[in-house]
Amino acid sequence: MIAKNRLIPREIIIYEAILKRLPLNHPRKAEFENKLSLKRAGYKGEKELDYHISQIDHSKLTILHDLRIPYNDTHFQIDTLLISNSLIIPVDSKYYAGTLEFYPEFNQMIQYLNGNEKVYPDPILQTKIQARQLKAFLKSHQFSSPPFEPLVAITNSQALIKNPTQSNEVSQRVFKSPGIFYKIVPYLEKYQKEILTDPDLKKIVKLLLRKHTPYLPNLKELPYSELQKGVECPACHAIGMERLHSQWGCRKCGFTSKDAHVAALKDYFLLYGHSATNSQLRDFLGISSIHQTRRMLSKLDLNTSGELKGRTYTPGKTFSLWD
After folding, report:
1. For residue 14, how far is the Cα from the chain centroid?
2. In this structure, what CATH number is given to the domain that contains residue 305?
3. What is the per-residue pLDDT across 85-106, written as a single tens digit (0 to 9) for each?
4. Is the pLDDT confidence value at 79 over 90?
5. Residue 256 and residue 187 share a domain
6. DSSP β-ladder status, 2-4 and 62-71
């Protein structure tokens, strides 16, 4: 059973909104393009792993994708978690390219790519740490834990995995995405004793879902004064559509739209915070009329608080920022 599906990472949606509104020649354009590219590549690899996991018999497994759980004063993240009554398998996904050499005795992995050598922390150690943190988290909520068997999935199909020291740890725990079935089945056959009752397993899943806290990038250093305001044209993507009566018109290509402002409002809430006044939204959309803006906002699923000039708007349940 899949208890939590993998959604598009919120960083991708936020970085897309930033890039849409950064001027073409802005000095930080490349920085955010690189961040977006890395997140998209990682997400693509994770979705490929999800596909191979979906081919496995789920009758004895509960699967949760993309968990981020509070622990002490920080959070730990697990890309994929497989739970049964007798076993817990955290899977960490890595979208590394090039040749990857694992040296668990030194807690490091070396990547060779385009003639360059780069050292990374050992992914096996990372997923072991995540397993330890999850075990402590469950213990703090009075749950007994079955055995943990952490795994590392290399999701880039072009990566070459090497194990120079012939480490059993690397052989047992590191795999390419299509091999997930052959990695977990031996563990499922090895651990037959049920530690968790069905009710306890359901309670653990509910707890993890309740405690999950999606990651949001820190936008404090964003060059807000340099972001372009206005409504984006759905046709040519120019920013700065004009409000003409009951629709928007693009000065560049002539395209018209009745609801182009919805995407712009999502950009505002993503980048500037989940609360805004009529005045702030007028300024962002490029509308002068208070009443016209109020009528427009009243047709959307936005929550309101306060009266008149002090009224603020926040996204409602169906005004989703994340799809």
Report:
1. 11
2. 1.10.10
3. 999 999 999 999 999 999 999 9
4. yes
5. no
6. parallel
Q: Among residues 161, 183, 211, which one ends one of the domains?
A: 211
pLDDT in tens, 266-283: 999 999 999 999 999 999
- Count the residues in the chain: 323
For residue 123, being part of any structural domain is answered with: yes
In a domain, 220, yes or no: no
Q: Which residues, 6+ apart, have CB-to-CB distance to 12 below 8 Å?
A: 36, 39, 40, 43
The model carries a pTM of: 0.90
Residue found under tokens 């150690």 = 125
Q: Which pLDDT score is estimated for 63? A: 96
Query: Which burial class, exposed, middle or buried, applies to 119 when counting CB atoms under 10 A from its CB (0-12, 13-18, 19+)?
Result: exposed
Does one domain contain both 269 and 205? no
102 and 199 share one domain: yes
Burial class (CB in 10 A: 0-12, 13-18, 19+), 117: exposed
Could you tell me if 157 and 233 lie in one domain?
no
Per cent of the chain over pLDDT 70 is: 100
Range of the domain at 276: 229-315
Claim to verify: residue 160 and residue 63 sit in the same structural domain: yes
- Binning pLDDT at 50, 70 and 90, where does residue 218 land? confident
CA–CA dist 78, 127 (Å, integer) = 8
pLDDT tens, position by position, 236-245: 999 999 998 8
Query: Residue 310's pLDDT is what?
Result: 80
In angstroms, the CA 88 to CA 306 distance is 48
Q: Any idea which residue has 């120079």 for tokens? A: 164
- Please tell me whether residues 202 and 233 are part of one structural domain: no
Determine the Cα–Cα distance for residues 179 and 177; give it in Å rounded to an integer.
5
Q: Is residue 221 part of a domain?
A: no
